[in-house]
Amino acid sequence: MAALSAxxxxxxxxxxxxATGHPDPADRAAPTPSSASRSAPASPPTSAAxxxxxxxxxxxxxxxxxxxxxxxxxxxxxxxxxxxxxxxxAGPGLPPxxxxxxxxxxxxxxxxxxxxxxxxxxxxxxxxxxxxxSMFLTDSVVGPGYGHFARLRTVGATVQNHTxxxxxxxxxxxxxxxxxxxxxxxxxxQRFGVRPTLFxxxxxxxxxxxLRAAADCGISAVVLWRASMQIHDLRYAVGDRxxxxxxxxxxxxxxDQLKGTTLTQMTTRLLRRVQExxxxxxxxxxxx
Length: 288
Fold this sequence. Notes:
This protein is of the alpha/beta class. Helices cover 27% and strands 13% of the residues.
């Protein structure tokens, strides 16, 4: 991505943060019948109780994609990713800022922010669908719940940096920005044994000082997004559909913040949109 487009990316991005716990205003309207019908994963049918003394016939287990409300399995991402050259840095000594990856593979990338919702069913979903997701965690939001994200990591999710306290960084002095980014680097290294290489600034806002602090904390790329997951659909920063290489923002939110919708239901809707547009899900770290 060119340096100019990187530094002006905020002009087209929805400045949405996850840690506030409030759904996007676009999701406060009542769902249409068509969206309501897509809201919950399909459940396997329940058989009637057998007659006394009779043995119920064995039923084949539903495939994972049906258990999670999908009409077809997710297509696998290419075994050898079409990885582009390293994105152009935003300036000398600064990391690049990316909201999509220019790849010919028909993949998009799912990223989940903060860590407020710790739904064990989401762990099952990631495992059963072999869903590659990147988690951008905020220490003050995760609180004592790092064990949940450790379980997600054991089933294939990756851990990245979203600051200590979810503070809007733009305009803060270097020392404060560095403390937010490097402090979370240290926390995640302590918890998981690895230091993240990717960083997402809270609310998508940053300045050159943010990029300098991120570089000094060992960050190789600052990650924004091209689309964000809402309760009933996607909101696009550019255009009206997903394109190969787009990065999608989602949030670890639960029913209290989503008007009764669960994280797994929201993810099912997102995956349906991905499939409807002829795409599948790739692992962001395989392409950056």
